[in-house]
Amino acid sequence: MLKSHSAAHYCLGIESTADDFSVGIASFDGKILANVINAYVPEKGGIHPREAARHHTEVAGKVLAEAFQRAKVRPQDISTVAFSQGPGLGPCLRTGATAARALASYLGVPLVGVNHCVAHIEIGKLVADARDPVALYVSGGNTIVSAFEAERYRVFGETLDIAVGNCLDVFAREAGLHRKEGMPLGAIVEELASCGQTLISLPYTVKGMDLSFSGLLTAAVQLLHDEKHGIEDVCFSLQEVAFSMLTEVTERALAHTEKPEILLTGGVAANKRLQSMLKSVAEEHKVRFCMLPKQYALDNGAMIAWTGILAYKHHVTLPIEKSFVKLKWRLDEVPIPWVGG
Amino acid sequence: MLIKKGAEANLYLKDWHGHKVIMKQRPPKKYRVPTLDKAIRFYRTIHESQLIHKAKETGVPTPTIFMVDIAKTTIIMEFVEGKQIKQILNDLSSKDRQYLCCHIGALIGKLHNHGIIHSDLTTSNMILTPQNKVVFVDFGLSEQSKELEVKGVDLHLMKRALQSTHYKHVSECFDAIMGGYTRVVGDNVAREVLKKIQEIERRGRYVSER
What is the Rg, in whole angstroms, of the alpha carbon atoms belonging to chain B? Predict the structure, then answer.
């Protein structure tokens, strides 16, 4: 049942690929009306998929209710429900998918499966007003340099092993650092790095436009065990090398594609040092540097809602019986009919 | 005259004692801390000129190096007339494309046989001359290694370059490249390298067959 003639159209988007459960509501003309994010914070260690999924189940009702309240939209005003179908952690994805399927069939509206990486780029374009950027998407699970080329977001560079956020997180845990209130581990590494001065030699691994962080992580952890250097200098060196690699690859993609903008997104996008490096490259190439407010750079429901709208408008909907999650769904597998050119 | 402002180097077309040359200069990058910046630029300048020369010894055409100025992180080398493979590959007939890719594969095989890893195999780094020679350029990221892993990554990058720039002909081109490669390195090595490439692909994030 399509509700095609109500005055305003809204999409509700559910994001649950990893540690965040988030619900966003957007209007078809591109206004974000709600973006409620509820993060699972493990007591120690990394994200345990099952524990994170349990968290998502527990907060789902509350987050949904809060999103409706903030958006001042009634459930019956929703024209379509979108959810992140992948890539991500299986148990987490399934929780979001289950909520989305239930909601869509209860409301009798179509379901849209959204690729999480596409959503990061689309919300970036909407919020930062970017038209056709080279996008650097850096988080705990992803490290991708991409740009639009012939119907897809093509992956120009990506990590050959672990994501940069993962590298920083694991390093921080190995160093015995703890999250503080409102500060993820990456931010603590950043804070320590800002007090570092001496660059210690670490492996710098760029292969073509692809990157590798596992050797860098091992070497940085080794430095910790050697106890010859202060933690500040190790953090400083780790950040300088990792971010120089990212910036170099982004610059290569920019030189190759000649796009007019650089878009920085994902959890690691909050790092000021990385921002300043990319800004410097943007200035050198006379292109615009686009950054996002944190709530749109981190995993969020608004990006799923907005991308859901783009897909829905192009009739890319998903029958419930085919709405299985795709744990390894690559960015460059997704046709993007809504971008011209 | 500046002919290309690349990500890490600028290429100038110059007249140098009567020769038409490319001056490849690696300018400082403001985004990097000076220590790291200098180390990377020095290393790549030295390494590139050495490996361009070594590659030539293995029978792979590369530009002739005329001068290396390490302090200025500058290499002066022969200007290679011709067209980038990137510009012509999509427009060739299927037969010609396969023939050309097979030849490229054979050249990669020669490099690998001698432990030279290009590390940036893209169709913009290969030039087809009017004499129908394929010249490999830009050895800025290359390294010396005989490890299977590194050879695998090298070819994986070639495939990735095909995927982003020649997405309509990926399997045709890559199969032909591997054909030429196999002829040079032999069936056994080629089989091992192919296995490695598949392993590397599975290692990447979000690969469906993992």
Answer: 18
Q: List the single range of A22-26, A179-183, A213-217, A323-327 with lowest mean pLDDT.
A: A179-183
Residues of B identified as active-site: 120
Kindly determine whether residue A87 and residue B30, on different chains, have CB atoms separated by under 8 Å.
no
Pick the CATH number of A129-291 from 3.40.50.1370, 3.30.420.40, 3.90.1570.10, 2.120.10.30: 3.30.420.40
Distances (CA, A) of A137 to A208, A303, B89, B144: 18, 14, 30, 31
User: What are the boundaries of each domain within chain A?
Assistant: 10-117+297-333, 129-291
Q: Which amino acid is at A209?
A: M
- Tell me how many degrees the CA angle B32-B36-B37 measures, rounded to the nearest 5: 55
Residue A17: pLDDT band (50, 70, 90) is very high
The beta strands (E) that lie in chain A are given as: 10-15, 20-27, 32-39, 78-86, 111-115, 133-138, 143-149, 152-158, 206-207, 210-211, 261-265, 288-290
pLDDT tier, B204 (very low <50, low <70, confident <90, very high otherwise):
low
Q: Is A129-291 in the same CATH topology as A10-117+297-333?
A: yes
Determine whether the interchain pair A160/B124 forms a contact, defined as Cβ–Cβ distance below 8 Å: no
Residue B170, Cβ density class (10 Å: 0-12 exposed, 13-18 middle, ≥19 buried): middle
The ipTM (two decimal places) reads 0.84
The model's pLDDT over A274-316, given as tens digits with 9 standing for 90+, comes to: 999 999 999 999 999 999 999 999 999 999 999 999 999 999 9
Phi, psi of A161 (to 5 degrees): -135, -100
Chain A residue closest in CA terms to B153: A207
pLDDT digits (tens, 9 = 90+) for B63-112: 999 999 999 999 999 999 999 999 999 999 999 999 999 999 999 999 99
Domain A10-117+297-333 sits in CATH at 3.30.420.40
Average pLDDT over residues B140-161: 91
pTM exceeding the 0.90 threshold for the entire prediction: no
Give chain B positions within 8 Å (CB) of A203: none
Residue A303 near chain B (CB below 8 Å) = no
Q: Is the peptide bond before A87 cis (omega within 30 degrees of 0)?
A: yes
- Same domain, yes or no: B172 and B131: yes
Whether A286 and chain B come into contact, CB under 8 Å, resolves to no
Range of the domain at B109: 83-203
Same domain? B73 vs B98: no
In tens, the pLDDT along A63-82 reads 999 999 999 999 999 999 99
